[in-house]
Amino acid sequence: MRILLAEDDPLLGDGLRAGLRQLGFLVDWVRDGEAAERELRGQAYAAAVLDLGLPRKDGLEVLESLRKSRNLTPVLVLTARDMVADRVRGLDIGADDYVVKPVDLHELAARLRALVRRAHGQPQECLTALDITLDPASRTVRRSDVLVSLSTREFDLLQAFMLSAGRVLSREQLEQQLYSWGQEVDSNAIEVHIHNLRRKLGNTLIHTVRGVGYMLMREAPTT
Ligand code: CA
Fold it and tell me: For the whole model, what pTM was predicted?
């Protein structure tokens, strides 16, 4: 899943970006509040990690302005241990969760996964559709309890579908979720990944909606 990281501390930002990438997140990193707001308005991120003390525009101001304009991207704020008032204010104006510095990478990742699940109305730790189960934490997929080996992109694509089961996703939306800045996208990349997912997971899982996009079937059709 693709997230925006807003952190001005170069060492911490670099460490978080590298660590989260290793755990399977696609991370776009900005270093000031204005850039954070611009990117969050321009792009559909699965979630954002927002430092509160940011140059150009304070993290709390960014959050407030986003929520005022009904931008509902799940936001996790990073706060210093002694800044309880900021944390409370952040939650009050629409942050979904927070992590206290120094950041524990695995805690941050788990909280992000939980935020994204909740934002999609999926309280369970594992996502399911038909006979397929996807575990976002261990990044494993099973079909009828048998492990299926997927590439990174195939996994990310399946996860994007699972989170939005029953909704049609356009190729453009899928590309946005699968590729971060600077990653080149072949024009038929999504089609190729979908072809591979169908080959590995069965033909009935992903339904083509002609001229619009694709939709994941959570249950087998009744007719
Ligand atoms: Ca800072």
Answer: 0.89
